[in-house]
Automatic annotation (TrEMBL):
Annotated Peptidase M24 domain residues: 189-398
InterPro entries assigned: Creatin/AminoP/Spt16_N, Creatinase/aminopeptidase-like, Creatinase_N, Pept_M24, Peptidase_M24B
Protein name per its UniProtKB record: Xaa-Pro peptidase family protein
Signal sequence coordinates: none
Classification via SUPFAM superfamilies: Creatinase/aminopeptidase, Creatinase/prolidase N-terminal domain
Domain Creatinase N-terminal: 34-180
UniProt source species: Halomonas sp. H10-59
Domain of life, per lineage: Bacteria
Membrane-traversing stretches: none
Length: 416
């Protein structure tokens, strides 16, 4: 069962091959356009260069993919991205050949791994050599500069650059702003990731039966995304029965029982490095759902349907929160932490919180063309029992129309 998108003013998902897969001619331009967005954000802040360690940021700026999970915890590869001038990828030793074909990268050098794990007592000396090399690049390629953006590096690396006279800023702000607005044809990569993950979820759902463990069912999604050239699943958010409420209970070896709800948040870093992020709740077995299960599901469905319809360009984050579906009092304390959030290569800027949370952790902004966002719902009673997780991924197009990106049916039994 699917929503009446026409009544909501939302365009349906597309499955046309030309919309869901970039051509070999389009891919290099997408990479160059993403790099241009990063450079524009650096220039607007008068930042001479960014040194990027986060593998998602490195991939966004350069298109380079290598040991994404390993690199997320080890500062062993990084990219030097100046506001103007040659881009240098510092690649893990022995891997320099992997990115030699990319149009975004002008030079590849072996990285200096700046961590105790690699260097033990030599860590300070290696970090100093790392800072000297970055300083030399800035002096030669950027004509010097007072500001350098850095993220996910060691504190010692930041101190070393500061000692060389630089003002060290957090690179996350310019990178998040760059990534929030999709460049031409980037959306094709996102759709490609979603279409692959949707098939993986179909295989997961088909495996749900009484007696199977959560992990066994969840593994079906893993197998399929690896087979379709995805990277990894970022969280372990699949659970069943009493473990569905409160939310965020991780997938386990618990055996799913007939008549229980099974809740899933995909959180897949999929094809081309793009996040496929939607949520569904299933019913295990052939029995009819209970009225309580149907009531929970209907509330979650109504919440995302209302909040999807409110997603329009020009609406401020605070306006969006004020117009949001009203969560019944007994379910408010276990609400999902965001009404909606940006999505690209990961969950990203912006996060739009509930009206109750604006003063404590909210910020304002405007929903704009080029953004892709996920609309979230979790409904679970404060006294316990099962819960329902639903989520959809959408695109605010340049023409001002909103397009539903994710395409997976809702459970007709639970909506009945």
């Amino acid at each position: 069962m699917n929503m009446d998108l026409d009544a909501m003013g939302i365009l349906p998902p597309t499955h046309r091959p030309e919309d869901c897969e970039p051509t070999q001619q389009e891919i290099p331009q997408i990479l160059l356009d993403r790099l241009a967005r990063v450079r524009a954000q650096l220039k607007s802040r008068d930042i001479a260069a960014a040194v990027l360690f986060d593998p998602a940021h490195v991939r966004y700026a350069t298109g380079s993919r290598n040991m994404q999970v390993y690199s997320s915890r080890n500062p062993a590869r990084y990219a030097f991205v100046p506001a103007e001038g040659p881009v240098v990828l510092f690649e893990f030793s022995g891997c320099e050949h992997l990115a030699s074909h990319l149009p975004t990268i002008d030079e590849i050098r072996p990285a200096k791994a700046i961590s105790y794990y690699f260097n033990e007592r030599n860590t300070h000396a290696v970090t100093e050599a790392w800072a000297d090399e970055i300083d030399d690049l800035i002096q030669r390629q950027c004509g010097g500069g007072g500001k350098v953006a850095l993220e996910s590096a060691t504190s010692q690396a930041a101190f070393a650059l500061k000692e060389r006279g630089y003002r060290v800023l957090d690179a996350q702000e310019p990178l998040e702003q760059a990534r929030a607005y999709k460049v031409p044809n980037e959306i094709k990569m996102i759709r490609s990731s979603l279409r692959a993950v949707e098939e993986g979820v179909r295989q997961l759902e088909a495996s749900i039966r009484p007696g199977v463990t959560e992990n066994e069912a969840w593994s079906k999604l893993h197998q399929h995304i690896v087979a379709t050239d995805a990277d990894f699943i970022e969280t372990r958010l699949m659970n069943s029965g009493p473990r569905t409420n409160p939310w965020f209970q991780e997938c386990s070896d618990r055996r799913i029982q007939s008549g229980e709800l099974v809740a899933l948040d995909t959180d897949v870093v999929g094809r081309y490095g793009y996040y496929a992020d939607f949520s569904r709740t299933f019913l295990c077995g052939r029995d009819a759902p209970s009225q309580t299960q149907k009531d929970l599901y209907r509330m979650a469905y109504d919440q995302i349907q209302t909040n999807m319809a409110n997603l329009k360009p020009g609406v401020s984050f605070k306006e969006y929160a004020e117009r949001a579906w009203e969560i019944p009092p007994a379910y408010k304390s276990r609400r999902y932490f965001a009404l909606a959030h940006g999505v690209g290569m990961n969950g990203e800027y912006p996060y739009i919180v509930h009206r109750e949370d604006i003063d404590d952790k909210g910020y304002d902004g405007v929903i704009e063309p080029g953004m892709t966002l996920c609309v979230e719902s979790f409904i679970g009673h404060e006294a316990g029992g099962e819960g329902v997780k639903l989520e959809e991924q959408l695109y605010v197009r340049e023409d001002g129309q909103v397009e539903l990106l994710s395409d997976y049916p809702f459970d007709a039994r639970l909506l009945g």
